[in-house]
Amino acid sequence: TALLRMENVRKVYDTGVVQVEALRGVSLAVEEGDFVAITGPSGSGKSTLMHILGCLDVPSEGTYELGGTDVSRMSEADLALVRNRQIGFVFQQFNLLPSMTALRNVELPLVYAGVPSAERHERAREALTRVGLGERTDHRPGELSGGQQQRVSVARALVTNPTLILADEPTGNLDSVSTNDVLELFHDLHHAGRTIVLITHEPDVAQEARRVLRITDGLISDDTVATR
Ligand code: ADP
Ligand code: ADP
Predict the structure, then answer these.
(1) Dihedral of CA 105/106/109/112: which sign?
(2) d(Cα 114, Cα 180) in Å, to the nearest integer?
(3) N or C: which terminus of the chain carries fewer CB neighbours within 10 A?
(4) DSSP label at 141?
(5) Which conformational region is residue 196 in: left (phi greater than 0), alpha (psi within -120 to 50 degrees), or beta?
(6) Whole-angstrom distance, CA of residue 227 vs CA of residue 210
(7) Is the pLDDT of residue 23 over 70?
(8) Ranges for the ABC transporter domain (predicted)?
C-alpha cells in the first residue's frame, strides 16, 4: 500500500513582485518499505517537494496524503504533530547540538514526545547501537567524524520509530568514505523494512536507492528502478 500519495501538487511562491511556480502538478505514490531517491538540478523544486513531503509546508493546490490522512490543508500546529510522530529528518548539516553527547542528541525527539527519562536513555542507546555507534554514546559531535555525526543524526531520526525517514542531501557534507558508510546504513534500514525518501542532487547517490524520481522544472520527468 502507498504510504505517501501526492496528487497534482502545485506550489507557488508569491514574492510580492513575481510568482514562482516551483511545483507544477506533481503526482507520486511511495510504497511502504520502499527506498526512493528524488533528484534533479538546482532550482528544479527538490527542496519545495521535500518541505511538503516532510509536512514543513503545504501545497498551493492538490493533495498530499501521509499514511491515508490528507495533510494538505492542516494547520501549522497539526502539521507539527504529524512531523513529530511520523517523520524522522536527516539533514545535510547534521543539526546536532554541539554541547550535548550523542546520547542526549538522540534523546531529544523523545523529550519533545514526553517519554520518561529511563525509557529515553534505553531507546537512544538502542538507536545508536543500530547505527554502529554503541561505543560512542558519550562523545560530543565535535569528537566524532562527519560520517559518525551523520549516523548520530540517523539514530535521532529513528528513535521515535517514524513511518517515514526523510533525508535532505544527507551526504552533501561528507567525503566519499563517509558517504558510502551512510548509504550503507540506508540500505540496511531499507532491508529492515523502513520507508526512506532521499533528496539529492548527486546522481551517484540517487542510484543507491531502489527507485529514482527525477524532477525537472517543477515536474517529475523520470521514474525508474535503479540500475545497480
Ligand atoms: P531545488 O531544491 O531543486 O534547488 P527549490 O525547491 O529550492 O529547488 O526551488 C524551486 C524554485 O522555486 C526555484 O525557482 C526557486 O528560486 C524558487 N523558490 C524556492 N523557494 C522560494 C521562496 N521561498 N520564495 C520564492 N521562490 C522560491
Ligand atoms: P540544508 O540541507 O540546505 O543544509 P537544512 O538541512 O539545515 O538545510 O534544513 C532544510 C530545511 O528543513 C530548512 O528549511 C529548515 O528550516 C528545515 N529544518 C531544519 N531543521 C529542522 C528540524 N529539526 N525540524 C523541522 N524542520 C527543520
Answers:
(1) negative
(2) 35
(3) C
(4) G
(5) beta
(6) 8
(7) yes
(8) 4-228
Q: Are the beta carbons of 36 and 222 closer than 8 angstroms? A: no
Residue 132, pLDDT score: 95
In DSSP terms, which residues pair with 164 in a beta bridge? 87
**Which residues form ligand 2's pocket by a CB distance below 6 Å?**
56, 89, 91-93, 95, 168-169
Predicted confidence (pLDDT) at residue 115 exceeds the cutoff of 90: yes
Dihedral of the CA atoms 157, 159, 163, 168 (nearest 10)?
0
- What's the whole-number mean pLDDT along residues 101-107? 98
Q: Look at residue 227 in the predicted model and tell me its pLDDT.
A: 67
The DSSP annotation for 180-224 comes to: HHHHHHHHHHHHTT--EEEE-S-HHHHTTSSEEEEEETTEEEEEE
ipTM score of complex? 0.72
Sign of CA dihedral 109, 115, 121, 125: negative
- Alpha-carbon gap, residue 149 to 164, rounded angstroms: 20
Q: What is the average pLDDT value for the chain, to the nearest integer?
A: 95
Mean pLDDT across 118-129: 97
Residue matched to cell numbers 554514546: 137
Which pTM does this prediction carry?
Answer: 0.90
